[in-house]
Inverse folding.
């Protein structure tokens, strides 16, 4: 079992990392195929229905980075939840 101090330090680091990764886009960058050199689509779901937004070619790297941040954010939130659970268990001991 990790001591409360170390868990709290980890929680603080995770909260900072979460704060640093809030510039996100949810979805996937999908190519329209080689026949369309103008750009790609950002696809995502809203109420179970697929939606898409056109991404102009110059914005593709930025959109890819923002969707990667979303994945990182999900991982960080899961880690924070795990640390919070451990801290909660220790508070009951």
């Amino acid at each position: 079992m990790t001591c409360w101090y170390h868990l709290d330090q980890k929680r603080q680091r995770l909260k900072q990392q979460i704060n640093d990764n809030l510039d996100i886009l949810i979805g996937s960058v999908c190519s329209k195929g080689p026949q369309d050199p103008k750009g790609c689509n950002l696809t995502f779901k809203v109420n179970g229905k697929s939606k898409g937004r056109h991404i102009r070619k110059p914005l593709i790297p930025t959109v890819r980075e923002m969707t990667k941040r979303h994945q990182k954010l999900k991982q960080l939130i899961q880690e924070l939840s795990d640390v919070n659970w451990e801290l909660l268990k220790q508070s009951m001991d």
Remarks:
- Helices lie at 4-20, 60-92.
- The chain has one domain: 4-92.
